[in-house]
């Protein structure tokens, strides 16, 4: 026992681990050994994660939790954690591989799973937003086509609609047949010798070319102006009757000797008649 003075008075008490009357004698407290209970094979659990241990005939047996898979002694896992754990036509939802389509697409739409993701499209004959709703496509009646638009006739041609068909013809003043319409001429060499190409038509080049009392002859598509016999002057302006006495034609028979042409002109014999033209 030990003694302590508290407020001038001695106080006796047994030491730690002893019991009894501290004024008479303290004795050692006997140590009671705990009795070992029966051991259980599931405590501690020999199972891995997401597995449970069940005792059977004094032995522990591990099984995976419902909807978990794998080795229960090392660890069980859910069916999936990410989409790549599932087939390409499934997606991982709440650790389960499921079809992601139900409830995804709108009315009159169809769903296809592409790489774990749902893809919505309107069914044939319907248009709109496949996520919300697709509506029946309104087919507008096809407008009648104009057979002359674009024109099938070719250049320099006219297209007319006759009984819903294109009828082609060449423009006025053009020759040939579509699609090969062309002007009557482009250059004078395409015309007869006594014609010239004027505004894409073979025409007589003489009208309005020569002067008063002058005559015009077409030579190689060109108009040749000359004063007639007994007249002198500028055939492109005016020919005047010659007042001098008529002289006998020279024995040579050349109508250009003497020259009936004016100054700066050239005389040529055409069909035994003088033909005057300006000097080059």
Automatic annotation (TrEMBL):
InterPro entries: Dumpy_DPY, EGF, Growth_fac_rcpt_cys_sf. The keyword Disulfide bond applies. PROSITE patterns: EGF_2, EGF_3. It holds the Pfam family Dumpy_DPY. Keywords: Disulfide bond, EGF-like domain. The keyword Nucleotide-binding does not apply. Transmembrane segments: none annotated. Residues 38-77, 144-182, 203-240, 252-280 form the EGF-like domain. It comes from the Eukaryota. SUPFAM superfamilies: DPY module, Growth factor receptor domain. Disulfide bonds join 206-216. Coiled coil: none annotated. This is EGF-like domain-containing protein.
């Amino acid at each position: 026992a030990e003694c302590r003075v508290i407020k001038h008075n001695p106080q006796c008490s047994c030491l730690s681990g002893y019991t009894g009357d501290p004024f008479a004698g303290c004795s050692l407290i006997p140590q009671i050994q705990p009795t070992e209970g029966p051991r259980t094979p599931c405590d501690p659990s020999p199972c891995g994660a997401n597995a449970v241990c069940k005792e059977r005939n004094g032995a522990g047996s591990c099984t995976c939790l419902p909807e978990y898979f794998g080795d229960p002694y090392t660890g069980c896992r859910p069916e999936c954690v990410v989409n790549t754990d599932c087939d390409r036509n499934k997606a991982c939802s709440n650790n389960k591989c499921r079809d992601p389509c139900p409830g995804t697409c709108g009315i009159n739409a169809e769903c296809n799973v592409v790489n774990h993701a749902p893809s919505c499209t309107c069914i044939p004959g319907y248009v709109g937003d496949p996520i919300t709703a697709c509506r029946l496509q309104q087919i507008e009646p096809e407008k009648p086509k104009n057979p002359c638009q674009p024109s099938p006739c070719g250049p320099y041609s006219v297209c007319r609609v006759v009984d819903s068909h294109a009828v082609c013809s060449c423009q006025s003043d053009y020759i040939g047949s579509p699609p090969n319409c062309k002007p009557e001429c482009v250059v004078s060499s395409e015309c007869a010798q006594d014609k010239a190409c004027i505004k894409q038509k073979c025409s007589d080049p003489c009208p309005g070319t020569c002067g008063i009392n002058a005559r015009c002859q077409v030579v190689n598509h060109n108009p040749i102006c000359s004063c007639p016999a007994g007249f002198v002057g500028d055939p492109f302006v005016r020919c005047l009757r010659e007042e001098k006495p008529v002289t006998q034609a020279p024995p040579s028979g050349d109508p250009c000797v003497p020259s009936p042409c004016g100054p700066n002109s050239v005389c040529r014999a055409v069909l035994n008649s003088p033909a005057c033209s300006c000097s080059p």
